């Protein structure tokens, strides 16, 4: 048995605690009973961000905007990465138009910007989109082990 770890539900955003080895066993949220991993990025509003960013489970955030062409091009790369990266991390999208406080907090000056958050701290940052294989390498090289 490994130590319990915390992660937030992608549906109700409540904090869950579960042993690390259960990550691979299609765990469900203790509060809303929905799957804790859905194989897709979760759209986060400002009020929902900290629950995910402060968790033991690393969070990979795509800061984007609907008017940004490179963001739209990168969206399918990011979405497909969820299938291979979960459950080692949660993937999330933050709309910088809707969540301007988060864009300011992280000093997002260009989009897309990718951040890896772990236990409330930024551990990696990438400015600009990457092709799928290079994005995967960046994730693998920077993702904290949990
Ligand atoms: Zn839930």
Automatic annotation (TrEMBL):
Annotated keywords: Disulfide bond, Electron transport, Metal-binding, Redox-active center, Transport
PANTHER family: GEO12009P1 (PTHR45663), THIOREDOXIN 2 (PTHR45663:SF40)
A GO molecular-function annotation: metal ion binding
Top-rank taxon: Bacteria
Keyword Zinc in record: no
Protein name as it appears in the record: Thioredoxin
Family listed: Belongs to the thioredoxin family.
UniProt xrefs under CDD domains: TRX_family
Residues annotated as domain Thioredoxin: 20-144
Source organism of this protein record: Pseudomonas saudimassiliensis
Pfam families linked: Thioredoxin (PF00085), Zn_ribbon_Thio2 (PF21352)
Record bears the keyword Manganese: no
GO cellular component, as recorded: cytosol
Residues in coiled coil: none
């Amino acid at each position: 048995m490994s130590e319990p770890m915390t992660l937030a539900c992608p549906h109700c955003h409540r904090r869950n605690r579960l042993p690390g080895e259960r990550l691979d066993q299609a765990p469900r949220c203790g509060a809303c009973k929905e799957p804790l991993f859905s194989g897709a990025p979760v759209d986060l509003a400002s009020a929902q961000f900290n629950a995910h960013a402060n968790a033991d489970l690393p969070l990979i955030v795509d800061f984007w905007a609907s008017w940004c062409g490179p963001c739209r091009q990168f969206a399918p790369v990011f979405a497909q990465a969820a299938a291979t990266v979960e459950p080692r991390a949660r993937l999330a999208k933050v709309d910088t138009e809707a969540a301007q406080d988060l864009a300011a907090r992280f000093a997002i000056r260009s989009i897309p910007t990718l951040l890896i958050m772990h236990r409330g701290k930024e551990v990696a940052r990438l400015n600009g989109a990457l092709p799928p294989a290079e994005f995967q390498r960046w994730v693998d090289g920077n993702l904290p082990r949990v």
